[in-house]
Amino acid sequence: MFELAFIAVLVAGAVYVFMTLRKNGFFVTVEPSVTTSPKNLDKPLTVYYKYHLGPYQNVMNVIGEAKQLLASSPTPATFFGIYYDNPEVTDSHFLQSAVGVVFGSDGNDFHSEKYSKDLTDNGFEKLVLPNVERAVQVTQPSTGGFASFLALVWFTYSTIRKYISENKLETTYAVEFYTNTEINVIFPLDNANEFLVKDYQSIDKLESEAAKKRFDSSEEDSESEPEGAEEPATEENEQ
């Protein structure tokens, strides 16, 4: 009797873990497609964003800040990220993104002016993203937590990139939208350059600036080195 109860507990635990992972995007077959009415981008969007330079996993801090600022809004918030580089080919120090919150659509705001001020006061900048008439799109289940982002990186993106390669599509930037139930990933096939924020820089410029900083730093270090001390006196010198 005890063994049966123990087995039942193990089975229940396994089912719970499976269902939890499934809600986060694991064990789910996602199906990319080309659409002429991409979700979230079928109309112009008003967003507030922060430019981010560095590893993509660190953008979670910006999203967390935006969530905190919108926490008391009566309207559920949708957050977003524009990712300009492929982390498989670009050094993590040079990965660029723009991350924040969707504030309105087609000229209609979802949140009151108070939240607009709060975002601006905390360093977020306003931007209107264009509508997209053609894009690669895929939707993954999500609970809004870290596990969902792991599923996105480990599984969903490999499926998307395989689809893009097999269909010989020319894509540039990835745009992601986050809610408490799903992550929607879109690769615009038109108007892509209109998703560039003013802070965006070419990889060549970023690498050039990084090299200059390293050079300046090495120059400062060499200038700060103490000059050689005088040779110690020897018996021959003293004579």
From TrEMBL:
<dbReference type="GO" id="GO:0016125">
    <property type="term" value="P:sterol metabolic process"/>
</dbReference>
<feature type="domain" description="GyrI-like small molecule binding">
    <location>
        <begin position="43"/>
        <end position="189"/>
    </location>
</feature>
<dbReference type="Pfam" id="PF06445">
    <property type="entry name" value="GyrI-like"/>
</dbReference>
<feature type="region of interest" description="Disordered">
    <location>
        <begin position="211"/>
        <end position="239"/>
    </location>
</feature>
<dbReference type="GO" id="GO:0000421">
    <property type="term" value="C:autophagosome membrane"/>
</dbReference>
<dbReference type="GO" id="GO:0005789">
    <property type="term" value="C:endoplasmic reticulum membrane"/>
</dbReference>
<dbReference type="InterPro" id="IPR029442">
    <property type="entry name" value="GyrI-like"/>
</dbReference>
<dbReference type="GO" id="GO:0106300">
    <property type="term" value="P:protein-DNA covalent cross-linking repair"/>
</dbReference>
<protein>
    <submittedName>
        <fullName>GyrI-like small molecule binding domain-containing protein</fullName>
    </submittedName>
</protein>
<dbReference type="GO" id="GO:0061709">
    <property type="term" value="P:reticulophagy"/>
</dbReference>
<feature type="compositionally biased region" description="Acidic residues">
    <location>
        <begin position="218"/>
        <end position="239"/>
    </location>
</feature>
<dbReference type="InterPro" id="IPR011256">
    <property type="entry name" value="Reg_factor_effector_dom_sf"/>
</dbReference>
<dbReference type="GO" id="GO:0005634">
    <property type="term" value="C:nucleus"/>
</dbReference>
<dbReference type="GO" id="GO:0005657">
    <property type="term" value="C:replication fork"/>
</dbReference>
